[in-house]
Amino acid sequence: MTHGDNRSHQSLLAGVRSLLGEASVVYRGTPFEPALRDLGDRLDKPLRVAIAGRVKAGKSTLLNALVGERVAATDAGECTRIVTWYSDGVGYRVWLYPHDGEPTQVPFTRDGGETAFDLAGHRVEDLSHARVEFPSRRLQRLTLIDTPGIASLSARTSERTHRFLARSAEGEDSADAVLYLMRHLHSSDVHFLEAFHERAFIGTAPVNAIGVLSRADEIGAGRTDATDLARGVAQRHRRDPRVRALVQTVVPVAGLLGQTAATLREDEFAALQRIAAQDAEVVDDLLLSADRFAAERPALDVGAAQRWALLERLGVFGVRVSIALIQAGHVHTTTELAADLRRRSGLPELESVLLSQFTERRAVIKAYHALRAVEEAVNADPRQGAARLRRAAEEILASAHEFEELRLLNDLRTGAYDFDDSLRERMEVLLGANGGALRARLGLDQGTSTDEAYRALITELNRWRELRESPFADRSVQRAATVLRRTCEGLLLAPEFKDLLPS
């Protein structure tokens, strides 16, 4: 994000905060007041990102990998049937939020690192959600929300996730964005994302959804090149028009590998070393399948129970890759193996996308949700002062270029404009599809010099000025060029260009 972007975002949030304050006064004592006040409080809080997907897609495992420790239960217990929020806090605490009544703090246990909590006599059906708080640097910018699996054998369990994500984005307990996990593109995945977008950001909104090709290590039956194969599958998904219209991008991730990389122990590395030191024939036979690896082998000094535990922690792919890395001499310590596994898991790429697509747009997403809430209140209850609120909201929408960028990006993603692929891709990159930083928008390496970046920006600016003014350009191209020209003009205000601009 450029310094200019930050100033613009702060100005946008200041205007929205003032509007919400005025709207809270106008609608004091009405059902709209709590949501309006909550949205005002939310402007400065972390973005709320829900993790959703079909049963057994690996949602809780991915959450643990993103947090860097095992906090979310991954079994099929009662806790996994509740929408559960994970947020930064001063200590470990768990709260239950009933549909009716005040939240209650409840006892919890850390079993094998996972947080299990007592429902304290509540039925799952009576609870809106649970919140788990604990000190976490990684949750200071994002609050992660684990949801029950859709397409569950229990219709009620699936319905909780549908109901949660179908809530108005302006509601007090709603998500701002979603990570959607898929193992294959299933019709239920498409239907779910379409339903999510029906109430979401600026109409259909691929910009606030990221697709995750989960359990990428299981592609190709756990072959050592499984994650490479997964990248190819993810690339095909990204080119699929149905997927492009629903998510910003698709990232392959091996959540189990990422979770274990964050918590890999010295004794686990030592066991892998002992296995890797066996004769090649023994190792090859062990790695043929999960059953072979975990079978009783009295001659082996790593017992069957310990090998089974390695499989549970690493999966077949993780075991095979770890042993291959040790045998080849590429890793010599627990720390080195953990770093390699984390890189192969795809987590760094997902975290980069989260940073560039969600946290950098945090102000714009939150501001739009707030404006939607004001519009909803004004339309439902046009009382005295409502007309003034409507005009103020419209002025903010009209003056904030960030909204124009996202509208255009949405239109490009959903096929509203029939541009050729090269032109569309150039537009998307400039609009921040690959990140909001100046060089990312220009498609340049981060090490590109200031002079070279300035020349590239001037080239882009001239391109869109000419297209905007060309009598031969299609009207849709001219409309897009108007937005992109203004984007380039805004990027010129970056502090590093101060000495290069004409006086």
What does this structure look like?
- With 503 residues, this protein is of the alpha/beta class.
- The protein has 21 helices and 11 strands.
- Strands 4-3-7-2-8-1-9-10-11 form a 9-stranded mixed sheet.
- The relative contact order is 0.12.
Secondary structure elements and their pairing?
Elements: H1 3-26, H2 32-42, E1 47-53, H3 59-67, E2 84-88, E3 93-98, E4 104-106, E5 108-111, E6 114-117, E7 127-134, E8 142-146, H4 155-166, E9 177-182, H5 187-198, E10 209-213, H6 226-239, H7 241-244, E11 250-252, H8 255-263, H9 266-276, H10 280-286, H11 290-294, H12 304-327, H13 334-345, H14 347-359, H15 362-380, H16 386-399, H17 401-414, H18 421-430, H19 438-441, H20 450-469, H21 475-491
Parallel strand pairs: 1-8, 1-9, 2-7, 9-10, 10-11
Antiparallel strand pairs: 2-8, 3-4, 3-7, 5-6
Provide a short characterization of the protein structure.
The protein is an alpha/beta fold. The protein has helices at 3-26, 32-42, 59-67, 155-166, 187-198, 226-239, 241-244, 255-263, 266-276, 280-286, 290-294, 304-327, 334-345, 347-359, 362-380, 386-399, 401-414, 421-430, 438-441, 450-469, 475-491, and strands at 47-53, 84-88, 93-98, 104-106, 108-111, 114-117, 127-134, 142-146, 177-182, 209-213, 250-252.
What count of structural domains? 3
User: Mean of residue pLDDT?
Assistant: 85
CATH overall fold name of the largest domain: Rossmann fold
The CATH superfamily label of the largest domain reads P-loop containing nucleotide triphosphate hydrolases
Radius of gyration: 25 Å
The residue ranges in which pLDDT falls below 50 over 5 or more consecutive positions are 199-204
Strand content: 5-15%
- Quaternary structure type: single chain
Q: Give the name of the CATH architecture of the largest domain.
A: 3-Layer(aba) Sandwich
